[in-house]
Design a protein that fits this description.
Elements (H helix, E strand, L loop, with lengths): L4 H13 L5 H8 L11 H8 L4 H13 L4 H13 L1 H13 L1 H9 L12 H4 L3 H8 L5 H20 L5 H26 L1 H5 L1 E7 L1 H4 L9 E9 L5 H20 L10 E2 L12 E2 L1 H10 L3 H6 L4 E5 L1 H15 L8 H14 L17 H15 L11 H10 L5 H25 L10 H10 L6 H24 L3 H6 L10 H10 L5 H12 L4 H18 L4 H15 L3 H9 L1 H11 L4 H8 L18 H14 L3 H28 L10 H32 L5 E7 L1 H4 L9 E9 L5 H19 L10 E2 L12 E3 H10 L3 H6 L4 E5 L1 H15 L7 H17 L18 H15 L11 H10 L5 H25 L10 H10 L7 H22 L4
Parallel strand pairs: 2-3, 2-4, 7-8, 7-9
Antiparallel strand pairs: 1-2, 1-5, 6-7, 6-10
Helix pairs in contact: 1-2, 2-4, 4-6, 4-7, 5-6, 6-10, 9-11, 10-11, 11-14, 15-17, 19-20, 19-23, 20-21, 21-23, 22-23, 25-26, 26-28, 27-28, 27-30, 28-30, 29-30, 30-33, 31-33, 32-33, 32-34, 33-34, 34-36, 34-43, 41-42, 42-43, 43-44, 43-45
């Protein structure tokens, strides 16, 4: 039937909206007579749209309906499909994910009923349920049909999310167990004489043994045979071999119904060159004399599944002691590492980047790391001996052998990679571990994993992210020299060869392994208590250093700290006994230059890292009290200010350390989820510290020049980021100075005293020393650089009344007293409030002037050659854009909205949003951009040790900024893209809200 063009267009659009990639073909399929009863049913269309591939699901459904033997069966299927949601979800889910299972249903159209039941046992079947599902099979062909029927139900539960990937893999292993038992039963029925004279046990190995099988995989087995009582052993083993061979053919051979899977016995002693079946004593003799390390590793997953289960259990129990003492073998760890490298080297060059199982960061990396840790530690801890990778990983984390955060990340990555592997294999039921290159395949897989917005992009991003996590953590666990030491049981000290150590250091990310080896030798050599403790710590520290952008710097800085403090008993105790202290120290030493430089000037500050409370910033009152006390104990102004700057240095280290640890996270505590909270903590801490240092300097100057009482009341007003509690690590301190003559003191004397105070404060704070300088900037004062450094309150009032420009009112939005005479500071604020919050807001002329100034600044102040999309202060959507937008709202509405009367940018923005002066979404965009730009400036200072307003050009420094911001290694491009995207959105909001564009 030909539909009208308008109707066709409407249907075409509807199908397109429901996820069909070929709406024209879908429309033709829906028009088939067999689907006439349901083609307009909205429930069916919605269910198809939920499938991984709606086009594939619709085609499979039509083939299934066409295959029904009669009209009654067709009506039963369609009625059940429309009325029963469990069947609908399961059937269409399978049809949309697996072309191979759709083919099976087309050949066996009655098997859809296997998906109609929804009993409790059906939801989580085990070996017994699968054995019942296969019990009607009498030959290899019917066994395949029954196997696919059971597989259909497993796939349905999997794609619908009824089971997770681990449960689906366990069900596949249980189905394989039932299938092996059925196949062995057929072989025994065909040769009863052979069955009568032998005991035969089938031992599952590999993924089947580990209860984590794929949809399409070889089923690895080992056979153990024994003669029954009175039988000849030689003849019995021959009979067992015939039974085993027949069982393998039943499963592996291709019939009219295809094959099930190959049964692979190549993990047996001597591989394919050895006998297929051995006695238990023969197995034991081989493993005692000839087995290689990898063969013991393979035995981790040995599990009896079919035949004589008692004999199978005896096999496992007999060989277990050999497995759990394999780590005592010479060169155990290097052997395992070499085997892993060989696997990667054998991957064809064109497939390495798409190899999901064997490639770097793939499934095998997780499995190797877990298995090696099991072999190293399992001989003394039976709780970690599981054959299942995920169960073993959980047990390793519980036992402290793997960090909890590492375990969670590995678990997440492994589950994702296994789910991806399952979806790839499910489509055509073919054994493959390669990520497809075709967009249609990627789209189907992405949608099957719940990625519906941009499935291809999301899938590739998730895959790369998880493989990156696995690669990093695998190297951390797999290459740590600690494993060599733990595995070596013979007395004496383990020492890696120089070449092996270099290989390991390179794997951990060291650019100069020769220098790293020299540092390690200096740290670990000798028989002192210090060397012994450091030998214990270094393997762990190397892993933490490797998690940074600059492991070489981390190790070098650790050596410097150790040289300075290594003979101090409390330092050694701290690292030995406080688990957090060692990791915190490693994070701080490898995150950049600023924090290590601060620490090297006073290494005893490392004690702050041993207690989480030691990293909490101190409040302003306590800081000022300590600074003033230190000043009071000093002799002379220079010593007093040196003491104040010493406190500042220590507190800057406390702040940088807390910031780095909060940004990176540790094994005990994850990274801070709210970047705004990190920015606020740094801004408050550095601003309070600066204010306390200025207060201490003022006290020192007054005490040395005038004793207890200055002949003038004197106050320091914080401006800019200092007044806004938003100082970064590299910010200058913008201030104004105000004074008032005390009673009985002449104006000239008072003015001279105030000027002398300012001059001496600036001098003392900039005296060269080991402590970072504190630069005082007074350019925001009336008349700028041409005006006097300090004025009386009356002078400020006269200037602002007669000459004040709009930009000065804008600058005063950040004014806040920070030191000196509190009453005079309050009087200054009362004086400037009418200027910064003018009654009835700004006039049109003032608003135009502010916009003109902003446009001029954008045109003239951007450094030549700077990328405007990456300049954090003056660039597009950077700090200036956000702050001027917020400040315009404060100047315009502050008189009417008390919440806007704050010196803090984020607080004012939140108040403007609450007052409905800016939409919530726009406020969030501006806040995100401001926080990100501020964090980038802080990161640049932390990494380079000097201030900067744009991203570093050096690759390693750029990577370190990325790590601070939470980006994994290799994701610098993502960081820059995210910054540009965030600030581009902020600029769009700014242009609308500030310029009125």
């Amino acid at each position: 039937m030909t539909l009208p063009q308008g109707r066709r267009s409407s249907t075409f659009t509807r199908l397109l909206r429901h996820g069909f990639t070929d709406p024209s073909a879908a429309e033709r399929l829906l028009g088939a007579p067999e689907l006439s009863a349901v083609r307009t049913d909205p429930v069916l269309l919605d269910a198809l749209s939920a499938a991984a591939d709606p086009d594939l699901a619709l085609l499979g459904l039509l083939r299934l309906v066409e295959g029904q033997p009669d009209d009654t069966s067709r009506r039963e299927l369609l009625d059940t499909l429309v009325s029963a949601k469990p069947l609908r979800d399961r059937l269409l889910g399978v049809l949309g994910a697996s072309e191979a299972l759709a083919d099976h249903l087309a050949r066996h159209p009655g098997d859809w009923r296997a998906l109609a039941t929804y009993e409790l046992a059906d939801l989580h079947p085990g070996v017994e349920e699968f054995e019942r599902g296969l019990e009607d099979a009498t030959d290899p062909v019917s066994l395949r049909v029954s196997y696919r029927r059971c597989l259909l139900a497993i796939a349905a539960r999997d794609v619908c999310g009824t089971t997770d990937v681990a449960e689906a893999a366990a069900e596949l292993a249980d189905l394989a167990t039932a299938t092996l038992r059925a196949a062995l039963g057929m072989a025994e029925a065909a040769a009863p004489a052979d069955a009568a004279q032998c005991r035969l046990a089938v031992i599952a190995m590999g993924k089947c043994g580990g209860h984590e099988l794929n949809y399409v995989s070889d089923v690895d087995v080992i056979f153990v045979g024994e003669a029954v009582d009175g039988a000849d052993e030689g003849k019995a083993i021959q009979a067992a071999t015939r039974l085993a061979s027949h069982m393998m053919r039943i499963c592996s051979e291709t019939t009219v119904e295809g094959t099930i899977w190959p049964v692979d016995a190549n993990l047996r002693p001597e591989g394919r060159n050895g006998p297929l079946v051995r006695t238990l004593s023969s197995h034991l003799a081989y493993y005692q004399r000839w087995a290689k390390t990898w063969e013991f590793q393979a035995l981790l997953k040995a599990r009896p599944v079919a035949g004589d289960l008692a004999l199978g259990e005896e096999y496992v129990n007999t060989l277990a002691p050999l497995v759990w003492h394999a780590a005592e073998r010479d060169n155990f760890v290097p052997d395992v590492q070499k085997m892993r490298r060989r696997v990667v080297e054998n991957i064809p060059a064109g497939e390495v980047d798409r190899e999901l199982k064997l490639g770097p960061g793939g499934l095998r990396d997780v499995e190797f790391a877990v298995q090696m840790l099991q072999l190293v530690h399992g001989r003394g801890d039976t709780s970690i001996r599981s054959g299942s990778t995920l169960v073993a990983l959980e047990a390793l984390a519980a036992g402290g052998y793997v960090g909890r955060v590492d375990a969670v990340q590995l678990d997440d990555a492994y589950r994702f990679l296994r789910s991806l592997e399952h979806r790839i294999q499910l489509f055509k039921m073919r054994r493959t571990h390669l990520i497809p290159e075709d967009d249609a395949d990627l789209r189907r897989i992405g949608r099957s994993l719940g990625m519906r917005t941009e499935p291809i992009t999301e899938l590739n991003r998730a895959w790369k992210r998880h493989t990156s996590v696995v690669r990093r953590l695998h190297e951390k666990l797999f290459y740590r020299p600690l494993l060599d030491a733990v595995a070596q049981l013979a007395p004496g000290e383990t020492r890696l060869s120089t070449e092996a150590a270099r290989e390991r250091l390179v794997a951990l990310g060291y650019h100069d392994p020769a220098a790293a080896l020299r540092h390690l030798e200096a740290l670990a050599s000798g028989v002192t208590r210090k060397a012994a403790i450091q030998r214990t710590l270094l393997p762990v520290l190397l892993g933490w250093f490797a998690d940074s952008a600059d492991p070489d710097a981390g190790l070098l800085n650790f050596r410097k700290v150790s040289d300075a403090l290594g003979k101090t008993p409390w330092y050694l105790r701290l690292l030995r006994d406080e688990g957090a202290a060692a990791e915190n120290l490693a994070r701080v030493l490898s995150a950049g230059r600023l924090a290590p430089d601060l620490l090297m000037r006073a290494p005893e500050a490392v004690a702050l890292l041993g207690d989480q409370r030691g990293l909490e910033p101190r409040d302003h009152a306590h800081l000022e009290q300590e600074v003033l006390a230190a000043v009071g104990r000093a002799d002379g102004g220079e010593q007093a200010v040196a003491a104040a700057r010493g406190v500042r240095r220590r507190e800057l280290f406390r702040t940088t350390a807390a910031d780095i640890i909060g940004s990176y996270g540790t094994e005990e505590s994850p990274a801070e989820a709210d970047p705004g909270a990190l920015v606020d903590r740094v801004g408050d801490a550095v601003s309070d510290l600066t204010a306390a240092t200025i207060a201490g300097t003022l006290r020192a100057v007054v005490r040395e020049g005038w004793g207890d009482t200055l002949p003038v009341r004197f106050a320091v007003i914080g401006m800019g980021r200092l007044g806004g509690h938003e100082l970064g690590y590299g910010s200058d301190a913008d201030v104004l100075f105000v004074h008032e003559a005390r009673e009985g003191v002449g104006d000239q004397e008072a003015g001279n005293a105030a000027a002398k105070v300012v001059s001496e404060m600036r001098r003392l704070l900039q005296i060269p020393s080991a402590d970072p300088p504190l630069l005082i900037d007074t350019d925001l004062r009336p008349e700028g650089k041409s005006g006097p450094l300090v004025r009386t309150l009356a002078s400020y009032e006269a200037y602002y009344r007669r000459w004040s420009l709009v930009w000065e009112a804008q600058a005063l939005l950040r004014a806040e007293p920070i030191a000196g005479d509190a009453e005079l500071g309050r009087a200054f604020i009362e004086l400037v409030d009418p200027l910064r919050y003018p009654a009835e807001g700004l006039g049109d002329d003032a608003i135009r002037e502010i916009r003109r100034l902003k446009a001029r600044m954008e045109a003239e102040r951007m450094p030549r050659g700077a990328d405007p999309t990456l300049h954090t202060k003056l660039g597009r959507g950077g700090l200036s854009d956000v702050e001027w937008t917020v400040q315009l709202m404060q100047l315009t509405h502050g008189w009417a909205e008390p919440g806007l009367r704050t010196t803090r940018t984020r607080e004012a923005l939140a108040a403007a949003c609450a007052a409905e002066l800016i939409p919530t979404e726009d406020a969030a965009i501006l806040d995100e951009a401001w926080v990100l730009a501020t964090r980038v400036r802080n990161a640049v200072m932390l990494v380079r040790g000097r201030a900067g307003d744009t991203f570093p050009s050096d690759g390693r420094e750029l990577a370190a900024v990325g790590r601070y911001l939470g980006y994994d290694p290799g994701h610098v491009g993502d960081m820059l893209d995210d910054y540009r995207r965030t600030t581009r959105r902020a600029r769009a909001v700014m242009e609308e809200r500030f310029y009125g564009a």
